[in-house]
Design brief:
elongated, 218 residues, 74% helix, Tetracycline Repressor, domain 2
């Protein structure tokens, strides 16, 4: 029983991320899933319940990555990779998903965000504080405030249309926004490690190649 519900939930989340929420009625979702609406309502009382559980699943998938980090990687590169992974993962998500969620289901959005934000921030702060201890992040800043700034920038970048006109690739989006922000609280040692890491990932080469082909504006 639970396995069937979990599979329905995963597929509904997939369609929400692809098409947004408003275009995906329960009847349409049931049709796409090849089940009857009666079966659908057997597992979900209404669309609000479905959305809340789907949103929790979306964030749970991201949190698993955060919790299963390689402990041997230095903090500055690990911190960068986490945000890069988020940008890459959400780059192709339809912005209508987040817009619809906050506009049509604000209470669901608030409940989910309040439930997950603390545990996400706790893990990020652990990495930042480890970076300070390792000498890669500066000591003269307030980690909680810096992290809040990153969340705001990340949300604007991947969940709104603010950067749409730039036609950014995921690597260009990362390098021109969050990477610059992260560099701002790195020490000289941290910058050297981060620049080396970015070079090894080939992000600059990839970005410059797309730029040369006219596939990005910057």
């Amino acid at each position: 029983m639970e396995e069937i519900k979990d599979e329905i939930l995963k597929l509904c989340l997939k369609y929400f991320l692809q098409h947004g929420i408003r275009k995906m009625s329960n009847d349409k979702l049931a049709g796409l899933l090849g089940i009857s609406t009666k079966t659908f309502y057997k597992y979900f009382e209404n669309k609000e319940q479905l959305l809340e559980e789907a949103s929790h699943l979306f964030h749970a998938q991201q949190y698993r990555v955060l919790k299963n980090l390689p402990i041997e990687q230095n903090a500055v590169c690990q911190f960068f990779d986490l945000w890069r992974g988020g940008v890459e993962m959400e780059h192709n998500v339809n912005k209508a998903f987040f817009r619809d969620l906050h506009y049509y289901y604000p209470q669901v959005a608030t409940r989910v965000e309040s439930a997950i934000s603390k545990k996400f921030k706790k893990q990020f702060l652990i990495i930042i504080k480890r970076g300070i201890e390792e000498g890669d992040f500066r000591q003269n800043f307030i980690p909680e405030i810096a992290l809040e700034g990153i969340f705001v920038l990340y949300t604007a970048l991947v969940r709104t249309e603010h950067f749409k006109n730039f036609r950014l690739s995921s690597s260009a989006a990362m390098l021109n926004t969050l990477a610059l922000y992260i560099r701002g609280f790195c020490t000289h040692q941290g910058l050297e490690k981060l620049d080396k890491h970015i070079g090894e990932l080939g992000l600059l080469d990839k970005h410059n190649s797309l730029k040369a082909k006219g596939m990005v504006n910057v």
